[in-house]
Specification:
By secondary structure, this protein is of the alpha/beta class. About 35% of the residues lie in helices and about 25% in strands. The longest helix has 25 residues.
């Protein structure tokens, strides 16, 4: 059954601002620094005056001190371009019987970001992937585009079924997104990172592809910490079903808990360390904590820093 995004839950994010840590490219006047210089609003630096140029931007006070002609260069203020990337593989629909799935959590977090970007007149696009890149929209700032993004997200707010048993191939999807996103922007990824643990280096190479193209990357690692990380299950027999392949496994949690917890922690910590080393903001997120508070705290911190 298809659900709707509750717009009232998003209203509180309308006045928050997202500031990109790196310079971003865009055209609409906003609050973000552009890599292009022009005679605009914010002073950047001086450069030597070239004969024949207009004298209107000469710094005469500096000339009085140095007896050399310098012109002022300004740094334009421009809008942020943001690409919101959401993993929609089968495992993201866990837990089936919980209050909120990892995917629904990611959709609401992403929609909250869209709401903030909309109020800032910034450009935003979405990319959705599972075993392949399923949707990639360019970043735009029109209201019609925002409505389209919401409709595409709502199409996927459905209850889990066997039709959603899709593997994860984040590596190829991120490479594709890097190729399709031509302008430097802020790329925000929501994923549980439940991919092949032997391909961590390949995953980081894909993310480096984004960095190579001058994008800033934020990784929101979405998990149900109690079940997936702490393996906090009742001590009774279970039949676990892989939500991506349908494979079934019968087990007694107490028999494997110690090894499981150690292995999954090593895997996730490995990704976290590599992200930090590559200058990628890595944000672990537990869906049992409100997505609104997680985003609110993170963005307030980001505003103070940048």
């Amino acid at each position: 059954m298809e659900k709707s995004i509750d717009r009232l839950k998003l209203a509180q994010f309308g006045n928050l601002e997202i500031l990109a840590k790196q310079v971003v490219e865009g055209f609409i006047t906003g609050m973000h620094k552009s890599p292009f210089h022009g005679f605009s609003v914010e002073f950047a630096e001086h450069r030597l005056y070239n004969k024949g140029e207009s004298t209107r931007h000469i710094d005469w006070k500096l000339y009085a001190r140095s007896e050399k002609l310098f012109t002022k260069k300004y740094e334009e203020e421009t809008n942020l371009r943001c690409q919101i990337v959401v993993d929609c593989s089968g495992s993201m629909y866990f837990p089936k019987d919980g209050d909120i799935t990892k995917f629904e959590y990611s959709i609401y977090a992403g929609a909250s970001l869209i709401e903030m970007l909309k109020k800032q007149r910034d450009a935003v696009g979405i990319s959705l992937f599972a075993d392949k890149l399923e949707l990639h929209t360019p970043a735009k700032s029109s209201f019609a585009h925002h409505r389209y993004l919401y409709s595409e997200l709502e199409k996927r707010l459905i209850n889990y079924s066997e039709d959603l048993q899709k593997d994860t191939n984040a590596i190829q999807a991120i490479h594709d997104i890097a190729e399709l996103s031509h302008r430097r922007s802020l790329v925000i990824i929501f994923s549980d990172l439940l991919d092949d643990p032997d391909r961590v280096d390949d995953l980081m190479n894909a993310i480096q592809h984004l960095k190579h193209n001058k994008h800033e990357v934020i990784m929101f690692h979405i998990v149900d910490k109690k079940s997936e990380v702490d393996f906090d299950l009742e001590n009774r027999p279970y039949t676990l079903i892989d939500m991506e392949t349908g494979e079934k496994l019968k087990l007694q949690p107490a028999e494997i808990k110690e090894n499981y917890v150690k292995s999954i922690d090593n895997y996730f910590q490995s990704i976290k360390r590599k992200c930090i080393n590559y200058g990628i903001d890595f944000m672990p997120v537990d869906i049992n904590k409100g997505y609104d508070q997680v985003l609110l705290q993170y963005l307030i911190k980001r505003q103070k820093l940048y």
